[in-house]
Write a structure and sequence with these properties.
This protein has 94 residues and is of the alpha+beta class. The chain has helices at 18-34, 37-54, 77-83; strands at 2-5, 9-12, 56-57, 68-70. The chain is built from three helices and four strands; from the N terminus they run ββααββα. The longest helix has 18 residues, at 37-54.
Length: 94
């Protein structure tokens, strides 16, 4: 699956890694709903770091369709709240 981190680029992440990323996404969604700024910041950083660790970066000139689009590391809690669906940033059907 191709994952885009806004403002950074794209990475190819193995489908087998999506369950782990979904766990972080569930935690992030709960923190956003609670308005837990410190937890939100910690978990967003962990989620993006994990995508960077697991993913194989695509060249900057590659224009692959992204299966997932994640917010930038400096996104605010309110900005991420607007991006969330009922299933978080990463739908369970992915």
């Amino acid at each position: 699956m191709i994952v885009r981190i806004m403002g950074e680029g794209q990475a190819r992440v193995a489908d087998s890694s999506l369950a782990e990323l979904n766990e972080l996404d569930d935690e992030l969604m709960a923190e956003v709903k609670r308005g837990d700024e410190a937890g939100f910041r910690r978990t967003l950083t962990a989620l993006l770091d994990r995508v960077r660790e697991l993913g194989e970066p695509l060249p900057d000139d590659a224009l692959e369709p992204s299966g997932l689009i994640l917010p930038a590391a400096d996104a605010t809690l309110e900005e991420v709240r607007e991006l969330l669906s009922d299933e978080g940033l990463i739908p369970s059907s992915v």
